Amino acid sequence: MHPDYKLLIFDWDGTLANSIGRIVESMHVASDRTGFARRDDFAVKGIIGLGLPEAIRSLYPDIDDEALVVFRQHYAEHYIALEAEPSPLFEGVADTLEALRAEGYHLAVATGKARRGLDRVLKAHGWEDYFDITRAADETASKPHPLMLEQILAHCEVRPERALMIGDSSFDLQMARNAGMGSVAVSYGAQTIEALRAFEPRLAIDRFPELHAWLSRHTD
């Protein structure tokens, strides 16, 4: 185990699961069905990580509350249909998490997904009780507010400097900074590694198993 870290907190979409394409498609479909102009793929990827209401309002600042409800419904219907077969985990995720857990790390998830959606994918992977704690955007504050990280830290009784947030978006890394934590950026998710380097992550990885390799080079 790395002498500095006890708790590893993971984003879900774009970090553990290869679901970015489905999120982008679902946003486009919801836009079409509600009569809003499509935003391009780059713009949609730029809001992944926020809670769904915050993401929609970021793309469509003038949307009213009634239209927001309808947009969310269309998004959810299409996304759930796509997720009849859950988005696959990225290569090496399952084995790496198992190795990290065996070495004694606390593992947690902090996601922009809603609780119902997170529970659905955890169940699909047989991970209902795998993580020490999981937090979803609709039961706490949306990223980049640090509340969900603070709740995870309190549950695990770990100080911020002993934890790392691993994610693929600026919201993940800004949230970690807001909580006084270090971060790890992944290059294969929603946002470019160039954008993520602006948040000075401790590490940037191109493949998920590189996280374990880096931690293993600095062991007790």
TrEMBL record:
<dbReference type="InterPro" id="IPR041492">
    <property type="entry name" value="HAD_2"/>
</dbReference>
<dbReference type="Pfam" id="PF13419">
    <property type="entry name" value="HAD_2"/>
</dbReference>
<dbReference type="GO" id="GO:0005829">
    <property type="term" value="C:cytosol"/>
</dbReference>
<protein>
    <submittedName>
        <fullName>HAD-IA family hydrolase</fullName>
    </submittedName>
</protein>
<keyword id="KW-0378">Hydrolase</keyword>
<dbReference type="InterPro" id="IPR023198">
    <property type="entry name" value="PGP-like_dom2"/>
</dbReference>
<keyword id="KW-0479">Metal-binding</keyword>
<dbReference type="GO" id="GO:0046872">
    <property type="term" value="F:metal ion binding"/>
</dbReference>
<dbReference type="GO" id="GO:0006281">
    <property type="term" value="P:DNA repair"/>
</dbReference>
<dbReference type="InterPro" id="IPR023214">
    <property type="entry name" value="HAD_sf"/>
</dbReference>
<dbReference type="InterPro" id="IPR050155">
    <property type="entry name" value="HAD-like_hydrolase_sf"/>
</dbReference>
<dbReference type="GO" id="GO:0008967">
    <property type="term" value="F:phosphoglycolate phosphatase activity"/>
</dbReference>
<dbReference type="InterPro" id="IPR036412">
    <property type="entry name" value="HAD-like_sf"/>
</dbReference>
<dbReference type="InterPro" id="IPR006439">
    <property type="entry name" value="HAD-SF_hydro_IA"/>
</dbReference>
